[in-house]
From TrEMBL:
It comes from Canavalia gladiata (Sword bean). Signal peptide: none annotated. Belongs to the phosphatidylethanolamine-binding protein family. SUPFAM superfamilies: PEBP-like (SSF49777). It comes from the Eukaryota. This is Flowering locus T.
C-alpha cells in the first residue's frame, strides 16, 4: 500500500473472503494454547493445539453474551477444500469479560489434525442479540459461518483470529 499503511491480516490470509465478510473488530479477544498466544497467521503444530485453548472475551457490558466458532476452511486440503468449512468447536452464551469455559459448549472441541498442506484455523466471535438455544449441526463438515450467523441473527463478527497448522513430519514431532 502506498504510504506504508498496514493491511488487515484477515484479508491477507483470505479469512475475509473465504469465511467472513469484512468487519471491524470491536472487542478484546484472546486465544491461548498452553503459553502460546494465537496471533493472525502464526504457525502452530498439531501437538501444540491438541488440548482445548483458553479463550478470553472482553467487553464491558455484563449483559452481553457471545458465540465462538472455530472452523477450518481448508479441509481436507487447501487445494481441494471440499469440506469447507470444517467445524472444530462451537460455544454459545459466553458472558462478557469471561471465557469459553463459562459458555454453553454446543459442539465439543476437536483438535486440528491436518493431513495435507497448510490449513488455516479461524476463531470467530459474535455478539449475541440475546440468549437463545443454538442447535448443533448434524455434522462438522461443510459448516458455513456466514449462514450460521444469519440463521441465529448474529450479524457481523466482533473479533476473529487465525493460525496456520500443518502435519508434523518426522523431524522430532509426533505424527497423528
Amino acid at each position: 500500500m502506498p504510504g506504508g499503511g498496514s493491511r488487515n491480516p484477515l484479508v491477507v490470509g483470505r479469512v475475509i473472503g473465504d469465511v467472513l465478510d469484512h468487519f471491524e473488530s470491536s472487542i478484546a479477544f484472546g486465544v491461548t494454547y498452553g503459553n502460546r498466544d494465537v496471533s493472525n497467521g502464526c504457525e502452530l503444530k498439531p501437538s501444540q493445539v491438541f488440548n482445548q485453548p483458553r479463550v478470553t472475551v472482553g467487553g464491558d457490558d455484563l449483559r452481553n453474551f457471545y458465540t465462538l466458532v472455530l472452523v477450518d476452511p481448508d479441509a481436507p486440503s487447501p487445494s481441494n477444500p471440499t469440506c469447507r468449512e470444517y467445524l472444530h468447536w462451537l460455544v454459545t452464551d459466553i458472558p462478557a469479560t469471561t471465557g469459553a469455559t463459562f459458555g454453553n459448549e454446543v459442539v465439543s472441541y476437536e483438535s486440528p489434525r491436518p493431513t495435507t498442506g497448510i490449513h488455516r484455523f479461524v476463531f470467530v466471535l459474535f455478539r449475541q442479540q440475546y440468549r437463545q438455544r443454538v442447535y448443533a449441526p448434524g455434522w462438522r463438515q461443510n459448516f458455513n459461518t456466514r449462514e450460521f450467523a444469519e440463521l441465529y441473527n448474529l450479524g457481523l463478527p466482533v473479533a476473529a483470529v487465525f493460525f496456520n497448522c500443518q502435519r508434523e513430519t518426522g523431524s522430532g514431532g509426533r505424527t497423528f
